[in-house]
C-alpha cells in the first residue's frame, strides 16, 4: 500500500512558535522500510524449529511462522524503539485468522488494541492503522481452518515518535454526551471517542501537553462523522495560535498530518462537519 495520503495540506508560519515549513504532503512521511524485519519476535507457540516466529520477520516469503492448532494464538515483534505506526501488512499462509486484533505496547506487557479484523480473508492483508508503541502484536481470535495460524511475513511501517498527547488534559468547545467526553480522544482506545454537540458548527478540541514540546505531527482517527475542512494549530499559551496544517478535502478514515513545530497546546479546529454527528476516536500528537 506504500503510501498513505494527506489531503489538502497547507502550512502557515508565525513568529510566536518555531514552525518549519516545506515538508511533503504525502502523509506522515512513513518510512518505506519494514520496521519488523530482523527484529526480536515472540509467539504464543510454534510447531517446530522450521516454523519458529523469527521466520515471519526474516524478509523471506518462502519461510513462515506456524502456531499450534488452536484459537487465540499470537505473534509479537519488538521494534526496539517507539514508533508512530500507520501500516501493518500480513502475508498469510493457507492457515489464517478470520478474526484477529492488532495491538501495540510500550513495554511488551500492557497492550492497546488499535485494529480489529472481523472478516479476515487470508492472502496479503494491508492494513491502515493508528497507534504508537515499541511492540506490535497480531492476536489471533478465531482461525479460519482446523490448523493454527501461519504467516509468511509480518511487516510493520511507521515513523519514529511517541504519542506525547496520550492521556493529557483536554478541553473542547462542546460535548454531545457524557459518553463522548474530550479525554476519550486521547486515551489511546480506538473504541472510545469525543463528539461535540450537534449545534456546534465549528468544533474544537485542545490538548495541553503540560510544557513546551517538540511536535512532529498530529494524527486523527475519525468515526462516522468527520470534518471535511479542518486545521491543526499550536500555541505556547493557549490563547495565541499558529496554524501548522490545514486539510480542505478530508473524507474521513485516518489522517496523518506531518509538520515540525514546538508548543504546549495542540488544537484541532473544524471549519465544517458532515454529517450531523462528528466523531474523533483518536487524536494523537507525535513528538518528543
TrEMBL record:
InterPro entries: BG_Antigen-Binding_Lectin (IPR051941), FA58C (IPR000421), Galactose-bd-like_sf (IPR008979). The keyword Signal applies. Residues 28-159, 187-288 form the F5/8 type C domain. The keyword Plastid does not apply. Coiled coil: none annotated. It comes from the Bacteria. Transmembrane segments: none annotated. Residues 1-29 form the signal peptide. This is Coagulation factor 5/8 type domain protein. It comes from Paenibacillus curdlanolyticus YK9.
Amino acid at each position: 500500500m506504500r503510501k498513505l495520503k494527506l489531503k489538502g495540506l497547507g502550512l502557515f508560519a508565525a513568529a510566536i512558535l518555531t514552525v518549519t515549513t516545506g515538508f511533503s504532503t504525502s502523509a506522515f512521511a512513513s518510512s518505506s522500510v519494514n520496521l519488523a524485519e530482523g527484529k526480536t519476535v515472540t509467539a504464543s507457540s510454534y510447531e517446530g524449529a522450521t516454523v519458529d516466529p523469527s521466520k515471519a520477520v526474516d524478509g523471506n516469503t518462502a519461510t513462515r511462522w506456524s502456531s499450534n492448532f488452536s484459537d487465540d494464538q499470537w505473534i509479537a515483534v519488538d521494534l526496539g524503539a517507539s514508533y508512530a505506526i500507520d501500516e501493518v501488512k500480513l502475508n498469510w499462509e493457507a492457515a489464517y485468522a478470520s478474526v484477529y486484533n492488532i495491538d501495540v505496547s510500550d513495554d511488551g506487557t500492557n497492550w492497546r488494541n488499535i485494529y480489529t479484523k472481523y472478516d479476515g480473508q487470508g492472502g496479503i492483508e494491508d492494513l491502515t492503522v493508528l497507534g504508537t508503541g515499541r511492540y506490535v502484536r497480531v492476536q489471533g481470535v478465531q482461525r479460519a481452518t482446523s490448523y493454527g495460524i501461519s504467516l509468511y511475513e509480518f511487516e510493520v511501517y511507521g515513523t519514529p515518535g511517541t504519542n506525547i498527547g496520550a492521556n493529557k488534559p483536554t478541553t473542547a468547545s462542546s460535548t454531545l454526551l457524557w459518553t463522548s467526553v474530550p479525554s476519550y480522544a486521547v486515551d489511546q482506545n480506538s473504541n472510545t471517542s469525543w463528539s461535540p454537540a450537534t449545534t456546534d458548527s465549528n468544533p474544537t478540541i485542545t490538548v495541553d501537553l503540560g510544557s513546551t514540546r517538540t511536535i512532529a505531527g498530529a494524527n486523527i482517527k475519525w468515526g462516522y462523522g468527520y470534518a471535511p475542512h479542518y486545521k491543526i494549530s499550536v500555541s505556547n499559551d493557549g490563547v495565541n495560535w499558529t496554524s501548522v496544517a490545514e486539510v480542505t478535502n478530508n473524507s474521513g478514515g485516518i489522517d496523518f498530518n506531518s509538520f515540525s513545530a514546538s508548543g504546549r497546546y495542540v488544537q484541532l479546529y473544524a471549519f465544517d462537519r458532515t454529517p450531523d454527528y462528528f466523531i474523533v476516536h483518536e487524536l494523537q500528537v507525535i513528538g518528543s
